[in-house]
Amino acid sequence: MVDHKYAWVRIADVENIPVGENEVREISAGHKKICLARRDGKLYAFAHKCPHAGGYLSEGHIDNFGNIVCPVHRYKYNIKNGYNSSGEGYYLITYPVEEREDGIYIGFAQSGWLNLFRK
Ligand code: FES
Fold first, then answer.
1. Average pLDDT of 8-26?
2. Closest ligand 1 atom, CA of 74?
3. Is 1 inside any structural domain?
4. For a pLDDT cut of 70, what percent of the chain falls above it?
C-alpha cells in the first residue's frame, strides 16, 4: 500500500551521503532547503532555519546529547524530534529520513483536504 502521508524526495545516492558523522549541512530537497545531520551513523533532517529568529542551523553544531545548537542565541533542539531541549518553548520541524536501496529520501508531510479521502 502506498503511504500518502508523505511526499518522498530523493536527495542522494546511498554511497554519496552529503554529511559526515556529527556534522550538519544545508541541502536542497526538491525546491526546499533543509538541514541534514548524521549522529551515530543515522541521518536526521530538520528545518534549515531556527524557529526562534531564523538563525541558519547549518552554521551551528551538534552537541554531545544530540541537539543542534543554534549559532545565534545557542538555543538547542533535539535533532530526532525537534524538542527545544534548552527550554524556551520553540519547536523545530523535523522530517523523516529513509535510507532505501536506491537512495536517501526525505519525507514531507502532505497537506490538503485530499488526504481526508485517502485510506
Ligand atoms: S535565532 Fe536561533 S536561538 Fe535565536
1. 94
2. 3
3. no
4. 91
For residue 101, is it within any domain? yes
Nearest to 106 by CA among 1, 25, 21, 23: 25
CATH of the domain at 71: 2.102.10.10
Domain count, the chain: 1
**What is the span of the domain harbouring residue 63?**
6-117
Pick from 85, 15, 19, 7: nearest CA to 48: 19
Question: What distance in angstroms lies between residue 39's CA and the mean position of ligand 1's atoms?
Answer: 22
Does residue 22 contact residue 29 with C-beta atoms inside 8 Å? no
Residue 75 CB–ligand 1 contact under 6 Å? yes
**pLDDT (average), residues 60-83:** 98
On whether residue 99 sits in a domain, the answer given is yes
Mean pLDDT of 16-39: 95
73 Cβ closer than 6 Å to some ligand 1 atom: yes
